[in-house]
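Q: I'm teaching a short session on how sequence maps to structure, and I want students to see two examples side by side rather than one. Could you give me a first protein with its sequence written out and its structure tokens following it? Keep the formatting plain so it prints cleanly on a handout.
A: Of course. Example one:
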Amino acid sequence: MSRTCLSCGEPLFGRSDKKFCNDSCRNNYHHQQNHEQTNLMRNINNALRRNRALLKQLNPDGKTKVRKSQLEKLGFNFKYFTSIYTTRDNRVYYFVYDQGYLPLENDYFALVENADI
């Protein structure tokens, strides 16, 4: 009974528990196994990075107010944020790492920076 590489199918020689013929085949095999999850995480991380960069760009002084349409026009995705902070008076801030926003009336948002992080 001959053993073959899980990635390329070439015959294996050496240790009895060997699964791959070389490091390249091992890397290719695991990359193929995790490809879908990796793409999902990469896309979410890219969206979070983009959201944070937009908030930072629009809020250089640490506190400002912008229209929702301005955020949407720049490509901000409200679906992605890293944490939620609720104040004692039940105002809900959404944070993308250290940059946050608070929905206000008339489609405005207060942008804030959490200096404690």
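Q: Perfect. Now a second example for contrast.
A: Example two:
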Amino acid sequence: MPTTPPPALRGPVPGHVAWVASGGGRPEEAAREERALVALVEAALGLGVVWLTVQDPSGGRALRERAAELARRGVAVAGPLIGGSADGRAAAGGAGASRARTAGPGGVVPPGEPALRVLLAPEGSGRQELVAAVRELAVRGVVPEEVSEASISSALAVPDVDLLVLTGGDRRVPDLLIWQVAYSEIVVLPDPWPEAPGAQLHAAIGEYRRRDRRYGGLVAPR
């Protein structure tokens, strides 16, 4: 991927991007991966993304260490999200609020809300999150007849993903936000993590903007 600053993007920007950093985790690459993670957040903030869920080998250490500094710039960091943890729910601010923030191209951020919410999600958190949501519905006393897509989404408290980015040419469905990625657009980038994350994000969003989203619908026959 090119390392020179890419041109500015015009048009719809995904409100929620889920990013899977594949091929990393080598001890000798730790410092480089942490710098790349910070650069990814910088790029998302500059592009107007309002939700960024990241699954990376470091567990988001670089972001947690810079949480106070990022907060001053309008970036809220939470997680790791394991089994619908309290941190993850705090990041969401409630399912209704999170969905309102990502409505429309690029999302509309209400006054006082962070410009970008970053949720850290370790590998294997997707199924755990669903289990926790089912348990929460049971605690609420929701009977089977009352279980709906809306009630499950409320229990998960993390908005639907618009764009799922897989790096390193990885074509496997990740165990990440399983419910929320149902109708997301998927972009597979050939470059391994952590190659030029800012340019990678620009490329992924550029591909997203060229697509006609159908949310599971079929193309009408001609």
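Q: What should students look for in example two?
A: Point them to this: The chain has a mean pLDDT of 80. Also worth mentioning: The two ends are 37 Å apart (CA to CA).
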